[in-house]
Fold this sequence. Notes:
The chain is an alpha/beta fold.
Amino acid sequence: MALVDLSKQVALGIDIGGTNTKFGLVNHRGEILAKGSIKTATHQNVEDFVDELYSEIKPLIDLHCSDKQFEGVGVGAPNANYYTGTIEQAPNLPWKGSIPFAELMEKKFGKPCTMTNDANAAALGEMQYGAAKGMKNFIMITLGTGVGSGIVCGGNLVYGHDGNAGELGHTIVKPGGRKHWSTGSEGSLEAYASATGIAITAKKMRAEFPDSMLNEFSEEEINSKTVHECALKGDPTAIEVFRYTGQKLGEALANFVMFSSPQAILLFGGVIKAGDFILKPAKLHMERNLFPIFRGKVQLVFSELNEADAAILGASALVWE
């Protein structure tokens, strides 16, 4: 049997976002050989979108894979289903209904295409190239505009019977609590621990403390970045915003730990730029709410992937599964 030279294999990773779609050619070491992007929202027809992707990517494949083997395509996208290869009812994408995206890509590129949602892709990227390398049991939590998650047990992503498992951001952390702006659920983790949730918390808290630096900003300027800026300057209200956010996150993480007993929980996304302002209270409240046999066993760590490239890396890791 001929030996396979892994150094010669290349995967295409594609991250589909509501505004932009990023792509890159990636080798087994996690090195991005070439990358680019196109606009997502300008394509009302998914076939036109696939055509433009191909026209942008094919020259890169020809240039960088003349002496390498192009193995396949991995796609991370909102509401992407690993089992069916479809994008289903994605609210932030221009294509409605169930889109057979993997099938369209396979026909266009002539290579296998594997898909999953963006948070699952991030977990795979972390396992293949980042802080979870070598880990078989961990949970990835992405803290951005929303809260996503990927659960890895025994070295495999948990997809559930229908491909939709792992929506930890929509678990309820405060029954009857804050109403979610999109789903209408009350008290979900996403309503508190996302960048959107942090902005809501900050607006409420600054109204109670007129001396807070947060009141120097307009309503539109209040976001996780401006809250962080104020926290760095020592503003007690901004620090309390992150403490409260970290508490809600930590309480949720305790439940997640007792569900799957992970070796680590990895945090990724723009919100983690707050550093210890959010990590310390999250760790404190996670440990405080754990059943004793779980305490002190779970690492709580930040992602090691470059945020700008993580989505591409995560999608490419689907090819190596």
